[in-house]
User: Fold EDD domain protein, DegV family from Corynebacterium epidermidicanis.
Amino acid sequence: MPVRVVTDSSANLPADIVEELDITIAPLHVMSRSGVASTAGLTALELTAVYARQLERGHDDGVLALHLSKELSSTWTNAVTASAVFDDSVRVIDTNSAGMGLGAAAMAAAKLASRGASLGECYEAAVDTLERSELYVYLHRIDDLRRSGRLSPATALMSSALATRPIMMLKNGKLELAAKTRTQTKAFIKLVEIIAERAAGQPVFVAIQQHEAREAARHLQTTMEAVLASGSSYLTTDIDPVLSVHLGPGSIAVSVVYSQSPDAELSTAK
Assistant:
């Protein structure tokens, strides 16, 4: 039986892909108290139960677990705790990621698993995809993310002071300010410029994830299709409700998987 691939709902994977590749999604939690939404990661007990079920399904061929950045949630730490119960049968990747970069890594591993690849081979495929991935976030407003505590005070202050439409980037698992813009149009132009430069003329996979911003997401994809290399592929999906609580309405997350690591590309260019 194949290796089982587990991720959480922050991967933003569409349901048809989840079904096709037989990926297991562990949903993160959204709670509401007095009308105010809050979120919680997966507990070690919950993850232990998920991994045990998947090991049983895979006849102990192994489980590969990919969860959102440990800088954004307690889920990764709890996943490591849960995996210790199963010795070497469960491998947890320190992804430093979220969104469809995480989803793309799960997809790469699941495709190999379906062909009978080993746990180690699936692990390497996922890590390779993560190393070639970046996540950018366009925020219509920064208020929700600032209240969530997912920004450092310095970054929150800079974003508020300098940018009414900031572009954030997930770097080393943390959200940092990537560009400051004044309008949505300028933000999209800047975002496409950044991605095009880092793609260096090579095809890329782009996943546009939106929350109450479908028309803006369509416009962004049209702009990307006109600029990025032919052969690039695109996917549009909704942002997971847990991430939506922190990013707020009107937000768009863009996950990019490059043909090679963007850091490697920058090193070559020096």
